[in-house]
Design a protein that fits this description.
single chain; 258 residues; alpha+beta; Jelly Rolls; Arc Repressor Mutant, subunit A; 2 domains; five-stranded antiparallel beta sheet; four-stranded antiparallel beta sheet; 9 strands; 42% helix; 17% strand; globular
């Protein structure tokens, strides 16, 4: 029996699975149970049919019941703390996908559940504790941060976004992208906004900030080095964009979760 079958065959409303060396399944799958996945260390990508999300250290994703998804990671090792819930009797809030930074109180609650990891036997204390997490989830998600790189549908835009992911360390202009796509700047911008909901400039910013979060998570580089490695001319310009998108300076970002 694989892990996905195990999750749904456990006859409990809440189920816990902690793994210090998570093995990623590169195929789309889904669970009848909803899933709260917390990245304790490392980072991973969460893919749905239409979007790709980065989950850095100290972040979590709420994946609703029966949503097809898969995970990938470029991090050498990823420690995941995963909780599964039956949400049949819960409000519509729990039917949507969320990404959010995890406050200290929720992190401590998640870590406490390790004592029940892979426990298939009913335990009243476990179920009461997990239900408390589930009930409080809306308040924890209120300040969620959208680390989303949408996936367009048109072939020319897919080629363009692949180019951005490969070339984010250098200067990228919309004029250059339009020339590579053999369309006018105006046409390219209109098509991209229609298919993804954001501008090309915002997309480039998000790619660079997401890449910088990977480097911040690794902890091997200072702010100036990260700025240069992600296409910014200075630490100040990088810090300004970071703060605009995420509400904190890079130096403050992970400190707030310690």
């Amino acid at each position: 029996m694989d892990g996905h079958q195990l999750v749904d065959q456990v006859d409990k409303k809440g189920f816990v699975w902690h793994a210090e060396e998570w093995i990623h399944n590169n195929k789309f799958h889904q669970h009848q149970k909803a899933q709260l996945v917390f990245v304790e260390s490392g980072y991973q990508y969460l893919h749905t049919k239409n979007s790709r999300f980065l989950l850095p250290q100290n972040h979590a994703a709420w994946i609703p019941s029966n949503l097809p998804h898969k995970t990938t990671s470029a991090s050498e090792s990823v420690s995941l703390r995963t909780l599964y819930f039956s949400t049949r009797e819960m409000s519509d809030f729990y039917n949507d996908l969320y990404l959010f930074s995890v406050p200290v109180v929720l992190r401590e609650m998640i870590m406490y559940t390790e004592k029940w990891s892979l426990n298939r036997i009913y335990n009243q204390s476990e179920q009461t504790f997990l239900h408390a997490i589930l009930e409080e989830l809306p308040s924890f998600i209120q300040n969620s941060i959208p680390l989303i790189t949408p996936v367009p549908k048109s072939t020319n835009l897919l080629v363009m976004t692949d180019y951005i992911h490969q070339s984010y360390t250098s200067s990228i202009t919309i004029e250059e992208l339009a020339e590579k796509s053999f369309v006018s700047v105006r046409t390219l911008e209109r098509q991209f906004k229609k298919e993804t909901g954001i501008t090309i400039a915002k997309y480039i910013q998000m790619v660079r900030i997401i890449k910088s979060l990977e480097l911040l998570s690794d902890g091997n580089f200072n702010i100036g080095e990260i700025a240069l490695q992600t296409g910014y001319s200075s630490a100040q310009s990088y810090s300004n964009v970071f703060a605009k998108l995420l509400g904190k300076r890079p130096s403050e970002y992970f400190q707030s979760f310690k």
